Each structure stands twice: as structure tokens, then as C-alpha cells.
Amino acid sequence: MNNPLRDPRDRRLPRIAGPCSLVIFGVTGDLARRKLMPAIYDLANRGLLPPGFALVGFARRDFATQDFAQIVHDAVREHARTPFNEDTWQQLAAGIRYVTGDLGDPSAFAALNQTVATLDAELGTGGNHAFYLSIPPGMFPTVVEQLKSSGLSQQRPDAWRRVVVEKPFGHDLASAQELNRTLGEVFPTGSVFRIDHYLGKETVQNILALRFANAMFEPVWNSNFVDHVQITMAEDIGIGGRAGYYDGIGAARDVIQNHLLQLLALTAMEEPISFDATHVRFEKEKILQAVVLPDDLATSTARGQYAGGWQGGELVAGYHDESGVLPDSSTETYAAVKLLVDTRRWAGVPFYLRTGKRLARRVTEIAVVFKRAPHLPFAVTDTRELGNNALVIRVQPDEGVTVRFGSKVPGTAMEVRDVSMDFGYGESFTETSPEAYERLILDVLLGDPPLFPRHEEVEQSWRILDPVLEFWAHHDKPAAYAAGTWGPASAEAMLARDGRTWRRP
Amino acid sequence: MIRLEDTTVSAISEAIRAEKNRKGAIAVGMVLTLIVVADEADQADALHAATAAASEHPMRILGIIPRPGRTAAQLDAEISVAGDEGPGELIALRLRGPMAAHTASVALPLLIPDAPVVVWWASDAPKSPATDPLGLLARRRITDAALAARSRAELQEHAHSYAPGDTDFAWTRVTPWRALLAAALDRPHAPVTGAEVAAARSNPSGPLLAAWLHQALGVPVTMRASRGPGITAVHLHTQRGDISITRPDGTKATLQVPGYPASEVGLRRRDTRDLLLEELRRLDPDEVYADTLAASPHFHADGP
């Protein structure tokens, strides 16, 4: 319906979600406490949640609603981004409910249905409910089936029901398709929101602004000028207590399939005809369809496992010594792949993707490395210290953009050396960036889909990655790399074969 | 902080440059220059609010404090560069004697190159902000009708002299009300047939809210005088009953929508820093404000 009070010229008005509730399954989990609850509070504090918003927790543990409210309170106190405000909290607390039960128990879902109906009457949530599945993916079919049989997933013309799922979206193409079928049987495509929290980050959205709002980048954004692209997501932590999730999954499935391929899509895609969800997703899908693997996977992929040792002045355990990891586990904690994009724009430009745990520092960046100038009118010795020009989009931390180019060193001799020009988000921008989860949860409640990958994109990513996983499964175990370094020697060798080196991010 | 007495603008520029050099803070990008014009009595609060806003908008704040009088012309400056008290630079300038009438000549050399300029009159505002010498330097000009002795008359003046880029805190203060009303109409509702706004008698925000509702909804809107503080209630009449927001005490508000239970909503009156932050977020002309301001004189008199 057209709201006469919403004028497109009026940019002071925030987008506030309509009346609704968010039901979180697995609400006692780590993600719920560290990210979801604080994000909901921050949204409330910024006035972006509707009056009478309800938050319903569902988990096996037996709590009274007050106990649960206390847990939310503590989580908010500890992790929220915005300062604690008693008024905001009181408003939010009025809408908090808790339902105890087993995910497989129909009577628990009947109770949930009752709770939700009561909220509609008491708080005016209007039959609009989002179900956030913060639970192991193995449980999705059970919960989705329960949502269906209890009638909770029933859409009405004047009220919506949505489902939110977190990665991993399957562990290969077949399982991803299976998951999509399960969700699709109960929820229509537009009601399924797959959260890739990277896409909620301001810097990631800025990739599109940088490319398509400016005149100076797009002309050189192609194989005439670009030599190659490096996309890195490095973590300095190990797997912590997450062996149960991580062992058997590994770095490629955990990070490359979703985050890195999404970053690749945003970096490489053509200009969409408009910025609405359909057109942006269409272009992303198109570029993912054009991604191919090199013929020889032995020379174009690398993997490794971190070994114990000293990392940044701290003695850390190796992957095999982490509790819960199988002693002969061949799960990789570092993965690098070389990908090609079969389009005119990117012909011959390799995209190198790498990710790993226990690397030297936590950083995510996209580096577009340019070709050297075709002719250098200097003596060879003058430009010995000049590297390739590069444009680096720093996704985290220190969000911003770095441009590297050559400059003359002061002095009587001509000597050209690389210098950096930095743009820092924090330095130039007005609003403090909201957390990715704030943006994404708000978008779910608003029903605004551009930042959520569609199942076609997920399936394309698995199509790209499956042969690599297959290849690795039939070959040697991953090589060990020392904790706190930039990965195994095989990764260095992989780039050296192409006459290139990894950037030190 | 550096204090320079009886100084010149060139000496001030040099002092800023040297101090930044010393701290290695050259690379920090200032996004805008905010000129704050304030009397000696108001300057401390105004500059404090501006410095607080600089945490989100790294900017150079030029505090212009005119001290007209019979003394000789003299320029005194207090300089704090980025890092002293947050990411902004603060240059408080006292213009004594005849110099007080030539504020723009002092401000012009101290503007950040190629960055937008915003001017905020934290005490009395000029009759026509856009043609004021400092206003001419700026892309956005912030006034506050609520400071004037006759606030609603002041707002009428602004309506006459309006130029794109003008804005007023009386309008900024209405944003949370507008956001809530828009959210209330996001859900299915019966057509709105009329509206009523209740506000303190002298409050300039009330007529703006009424004018906005009138413009957007195309229905008759009446103004009612209340005891305040500020705006105390808005009612949108529909065939199924009133959609109302009431805020009797300036802090907590209640939203009532026919067919739904009443709910409490946060609608605290905001402090100057928050108002300034909202204004600095967008620097392009606010067309909705222009339309609303033009329509607002009809709502200055309180209704039956």
C-alpha cells in the first residue's frame, strides 16, 4: 500500500519495520547471544523497530520468560554497540517471550503458535513473524516441517511469515539443492532469507558505490589494465571450541563458498540496470556462472593445516591438538584457489582467493592489482622498487580503500618507489557504521532482499567449488603451516608459478 | 590547546599546520567545516555540542564569537587540533570591536579546501540566512526558531527568506514524530480524514508538523494549544477511530491505533548534539522542509 507520509524526497525518515515479531530457534547459542540480541537492541535504540515489536526465544532449556529476559539483558549489556538505555530496554522487554521445547516436539510448536497468536492480540504484531534458524543445518528439515504442520508457516494475504537461515547452505551442490527443496516446500522463494553477514557490511556495499558511482575506476576495471585480483579473508584465531562444526567442513566450505565468492561476484559483475534486488542478483548470478576452474587443480589450488607454535607472542595449539578434532583429520584450515572468469572483461585475469585460520592477522580485503605501465621512461635501477599499482578495498578491519602507486623519492637522483593513499571510512563518515547483523535483521523485517544471496547463487558457488573439494578428497593431506604466518608454502608456490606473489595484507 | 591573542588569520593557519605536523595528524580527512556563530553566553554549550558531533563527523569547527564594542579591533583564537578532544578541530575566534561586523573575512581563509561548509547560528539568527555574509559561504544554514522570543513569527520570517539549503532545528525536532506517524500508516488503516496537532502555544515545531501532515495527506489539520512541553499530541482521524501519539511529559509517548493494543514508544526530546548530527548527515537542500515551511504560516494561529 502506498503510504502518503513516505515521500521519496524525504530522506530524514528512517525505514522502520512494520509490526512483527522475530522468533529465534537456538536462542541459547553463541551467535544469538553475541550478535542477534545485541543487534536487535541496537535497532530498538536507533528507533528502527516498530512499537510493539516482539522477540520470542525457543530452545530446549527450561527457562521462565523472566530468566530469558535476563539472558537477553546480559547479552545486550555486554555486546551492544549503542549505550544502554533503560527506556529502550523496558520497551523491548515488554515484547520478550520464551517457549521451551524440543525441535522435534509438535506440542512445543503448538505452544509457540499459541504464543505468537497471543502476541498478535496483546502487542499488535499483526500476524507478521520471522523465524530465525540459529541451529545446526541438520535440524532445518525437522523445524521447517514442524513450522508447516503447526500452521506457523501459513502465509495470509495481509501478513507475512519469513524464514532466516545462516550458512552453511549445504556442504556440496547436492546437499544445497536438498536444503533449498526443503525450505522451498514450505516457504515461497521471496520469504527465505539466507544470511551472509559479509553482505551486510558497509564496505561490501560500498564496492558497488565505488565501482558504479565514480568515473575514475570503471574505465580501468577490466583485463586491459588489471593483472589479477586477490581476495583474502584471514583470521588470527584458531577453531576455538567449534571442532564439532568445523572438522570435516574446512576453510573452503566455511568461507570461500559464501563470503569470498560473493566478494568476487561484487568485484567482477557488470553494472546492473538498476539497484533493485532482482537486477543486482541477476548480475551476480551471471558472473558466477562465468567462473571456471583452471584445468590442473594440482597447480591452481593449495591447502594447509595450522601447526602449533608461537603466534604473536603466544603459544597456540596446532589443529590436530584442538579438542574434538579427529587425530587423522584432513580438514583444511587454509584454502587458496585460482579462478578464471570467462567474460570479455576478465579474459586472462586470474582471481586468487585465499582464507585461513591462525594467520598473522585478522584482515579481509580485495586487492585489484594493475598491470605495470607498458613503457617506463626511466633507467631500470630507477624503478627497481616500483611494484604494480593496486587498489585495495579493505573490508575489515580499518574499513576503507588504499591506492598504491609510484612516487619519486625526494633527492637528486630519479628513484620511484611505491606509496599508499588511504581513505578510511571512519575518517570521512558521518554515521558510525551499524553492525552487519543490524542491517540484515532490519532488512528481513522490512522484507527487503538485495543483500541476501538467492538459492541460484548458492548453487552456482557449489558448482564452482565441488570439483576442488572432490580433488582434495582424493589427494594428499593438507600440508602444515606455522601458526601466525601467511599460510603454507604451496600457496606461495601456486602464485610463483604464475610469476606473482601474494600481498602481505 | 593553543591560545593566540591579538593575532591574525595567517598566524592561526600557520599554528594549525604546525600543530598537526607535530602530531603527525595530517592524513586525517576533515569532511566539512562547521561555522558556529554564538554569543559569549551561548558559545560554551554550542561548541560543546559541536565537538560532540565531531565524533561522527570529523570536521573543523570554527566558533565565531562576535564581541562588538568600543574597543579596538582585535582577533583572539583558541585552537585544539584533532586528537586533543576527539577527531574534530576546534578553532574558537573572538572578534572584538569593529571586526565583529566582518565575520566572513575571518572565516573564509580558514575553511577546509573543497569540503562543504555548514553554518549554525546558535544564538540569534539573521533575518535572511542565505544572504548573510557567513550564510553565503555555506551550503547548509541551520537556524533555531525556538531560540527567538517570538518563535512562530521567526518561522514566518524564515518562510519569506527561504533559500535552498536553509534548515531549522524546529524542523529537525519533528523527525521522530514524523517517523512514528509514517510507521503507523505503514500498516493497513482506514483513510485519514483529518488531523489535529497539540503543542505549546509558542512552539514552532507544532505548525511545521501540522503543515507537513496537511501537505502529505491533503486533509484539514487543526492546531490546538496545550501546556507543552513542545508537541504533546497528534491525532489522525479515520473512520475507524483516531491514530494518536500522545506525549504529555516530553519523554514517554503512547501510540494508539484502532484495532491494536496501545503501545509505549520512545520519543524523548533530543539534545542539541543529536539535532546537529541529524542535520550534518545530509547536506543537500531539504525539499520537503521547503514545502512544509511555505505551508506553515496557515497553522500559526491555534484553532478553535
Structure description:
The complex is a heterodimer of chains A (505) and B (304). Chain A is of the alpha/beta class and 505 residues long. Helices cover 34% and strands 21% of the residues of chain A. Chain A has 15 helices and 18 strands. The model of chain A has no long low-confidence stretch (mean pLDDT 88). Chain B has 304 residues and is α/β, with parallel strands linked by helices. Chain B folds into two domains: 2-169, no CATH class; 174-268. Chain B has helices at 9-23, 40-53, 103-107, 133-137, 151-161, 169-172, 175-184, 205-217, 272-281, 287-295; strands at residues 2-4, 32-37, 59-67, 74-80, 89-96, 117-121, 140-143, 166-168, 192-200, 221-226, 231-238, 241-246, 252-256, 263-266. An eight-stranded mixed beta sheet of chain B has the order 1-4-5-3-2-6-7-8, sandwiched between helices. In chain B, helix 4 (133-137) links the parallel strand 6 (117-121) and strand 7 (140-143). Classes of the chains: A alpha/beta (505), B alpha/beta (304). Chain A binds chain B through residues 1, 3-7, 9-14, 16, 18-19, 47, 50-52, 87-88, 90-91, 94, 121-124, 126, 158, 422-424, 427-432, and chain B through 27-29, 31, 56-58, 87, 175-176, 178-183, 185-188, 192, 213, 216-218, 251-252, 255, 257, 259-261, 263-266, 268, 277-278, 280-282, 286-288.
